[in-house]
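Ticket opened by: R.M.
Priority: normal
Category: complex prediction / small molecule

The reporter submitted a protein together with zinc ion and asked that the result be attached to this ticket for the collaborator who will pick it up next week. Submitted input follows.
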Amino acid sequence: MILEVIVDISNSEVDRCFDYVGDDVPLGSRVLVEFGKKRLIGFVIGKKQTSELANLKQAQYLDTPISSEQLELLYFLRKSYNLRYIDVLRLFVPAKLREERDPEFSRKYLTVDDERPLEQLVEIVGSRAQKQLEALKYLAANGGQFLNVMVAKFGVSAVNGLRDKGVVVESNVHERSTPMGTLARDKKHVILTPAQQDAVNRITDGKGVFLLHGVTGSGKTEVYECVIENMLAKGKSAIMLVPEISLTPQMLGLFRARFGDKVAILHSGLNASERYDEWKRLKTGEATIAIGARSAIFAPLENIGAIIIDEEHDTSYLSESNPRYDTKSVAEYRSALNGAVLVLGSATPDMESYLKASEGKYQLITLSERISKYSLPEMEIVDMVQEFRSGNRSMFSVALKDAIGETLERGEQAMLFLNRRGFASFIRCQECGYVAKCEDCDISLTYHKEDNELKCHYCGRRYHALTKCPNCGSDRIKQGKIGTEKVVEELKNIYPKARVLRMDNDTTTRKDSYFKILSSFAAHEADVLVGTQMIAKGHDFGNVTLVGILEADAALYFSDYRSSERTFQLITQVAGRAGRADKKGRVILQTYAPRHYVFRFGKSYDYIGFWKKEINTRMVTKFPPYTKIVRVLVTSPEEQDAVDSTRSVYKAVRDIEAASGKFVYLGAARSPVTRMNGLVRYQVMMRISNEQFPSVIGDIYAAADGFRPKKGNIFVEINPQSLI
Ligand code: ADP
Ligand code: ZN
Ligand code: ZN
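Result attached by the on-call engineer:
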C-alpha cells in the first residue's frame, strides 16, 4: 500500500504529501519515516495502490491519534483559513506526540521503597548526601514522581545516587497526573431557577446553535454544567471553551467538584507531559469533558453532544497568529459534524451573533435576572471635561475620590479599572473632549510616535499631528493615556493607608503571579486593586462594592470599527464585578464624552438598545457583520521585496474585483506600524460584501500564496482584531 504522508518538518513552508510504502493503516495514523537523513514523524492523510515514484521508502506505523471526524475538520480549516496541513495537524495532537516515538514508554516513575520505613532509607542514604536526602524526602512527601521531573529538580547525580542505593523503586507503570487534582471538591447544591431550567431543557432537547444572552450573575455557568450533565447521561461528550483568562482555579474547581475525573483541562499553564496526559484521557474516553481556551475546540473527543463557548464575544476566540482561525466558525462546523448543540453564552453578545439570533439563524435564550437579590450596580457617569474646567487636574474625579474613601472606611474593597489596548493611543482635547477622526472612515485616528503622525488604521490615510484643538483652539491637546503606576501613585498620595495591588502586563509576566494577585485580593490582603482589562473578567469578589472606570474612552477611541462595541462589553463586564454577593455595588465611570450613546445604554445595562443603534451604524457604514474586512499583510526584511509582493497581490486582487463586482473598499499601503521586529510591513486592505466574500476568498488566498515575498512572509487575515 502507498501511504500519502504529511511529514512534520519544523520551520518549513512545504505543504504537500510524500509517498511511502506501508501497511494498510487508517487515515490519521502517525508513522515514522525517513526524510532526507532524518527520522521524522508523519501523518497519513491518503492511501493509494500505486505511485509515480520508484524506490519508495518504508513508513513505520506508530498509532492513530487523529479521528476521521478530525480529518474532515482538517479540510474545513484548510479551505476556510488557507492553512497548511501540518499546522492543522499540530492543533490536533499534543507536542509530545510530535517529538517522541512513544511518549508512554519513555516515562519512568519513581517511588520510595515502601517495604522499609523511611528512617531506615534516610540512614542508608547517609547525612552527607544532602541533595539525595532532599530528593528522597520530596518523593516520600509526594508519593512518587516522574524520573524526568526528579532529574530536572534535583540533578542527575542525586537521582542516580538514590537508584544506586536501592532506596527508590522504578516502574514503567503509567500513572497519570491530574492537573488541579487537589482543588476543592466541595459542591454547592443549587436548585435551578425557572428561567435556568427552561434554558437547560431547550438546549438539551434542541438542535443547532443557541445564543444564551444572560446578564452577569444570571447563572449561565450553572446552565452550562446542567447541559453537560445531561449530555453525559445520554452517553455523549462535551467541550467547554472559556477565555484563557477565566480559567481560574476557582472556576476549574467548580467543574472538578461536579464532574471529578470526567473533566480534562487544557490550558497554557500545563507542561508538555500534563498536556499529553489530559489529551490521552480524552482520546481513550476516560475523560469526556474538555475544558480549555480556544484550542480545546480540537479536543480528541468522539460523539460530542454539546459545545459551549462562554463569553462568546471575547476576542481571544480569534487566533491572530499562525495558524489563524476563528474558533466560533470551527465550533459551528464541528458541532454540525457531530449533531451536537452549540451554545454561545454572553452578557454582551458579539454584534454578529445577536444579528444571527435576530434573523432566526441562532435560537435566542435570555436570562434577564440576576441570581443574587441585588440588582446590577448603579452606574454613575462623571464628565471629566467638567472636572477639568472646575479646576480638578487629578485623574480622580471628586465623586470617585469620595467613593473610594467611603469604601475604605466601611472596610470594603474597590477595583479601579484602566483600559489600555496595545501601544497605540488617540489624541484628545482636555478642554472640550474633541477627538481626531478620519474624514473618510469616521474612525478615531491613532497617534504614531515614531512618525509623529496620526493614522487611520482602516484606510491608511495620514494626518499631521495636532498642536491645537481644531474645535476650541486650546493647546491642551494630548495623548489620552494614563498608566496603572500613575494611578497607584496618586491613590497613595490621597489615601496613604490604603493597601493597593496592581495588575497589568508588567506585574504578571510570571505565569502564577496573575493568580497570586487575585487570590491575595480575594483574601482581603489589599483594599484596592488597580488593573487593566485583566481584572475585568469573571472573578467573584464578594467584598468589592466599588468599581471605578478611569479611562472609559481609551477603548472608545481606539482606531477600530468595533470600538463602541468593545467599550460597551468592557463597562458591562467591569460593572459586573461590583456587588456580586450580598452587598450592593456602585460603579463610577469617568469619561470626556458623557453623552456618547455607549455610556447612555451602558448606564442602564441596555444591551438590546445598544445593539440596535450599533448594528444600524454598521449597516450604514458598511462594516462587519455586513461586510468582511480582509487584510493581506506582507512582511519582509527588505523594502523592495515587500513592495514587489504587495504590488503583485494588489494587482491580482484588482482582477478578482473586476471579475466579481466592485468591493466596498480596496487599497494598498504601508501598515499602520511600518516596521516591527526588523521587518517592513505592507498591506492590501479590502472590505467585501458578505455576498461576494465566499466566491472571492479562495482567489485572494491563491493570490497571496502566488506572490509571497522572496525573503519575508504573507498572511491573510479576516476581520482582524488589531490592525497594527
Ligand atoms: P454568570 O456566569 O451568568 O455571570 P454565574 O453562573 O457565575 O453567573 O452565577 C452567579 C452566582 O449565582 C454564582 O455564585 C452561582 O453559584 C450562583 N447561582 C447560579 N445559579 C443559582 C441558583 N439556581 N440558585 C442559587 N445560586 C445560583
Ligand atoms: Zn478642544
Ligand atoms: Zn480612514
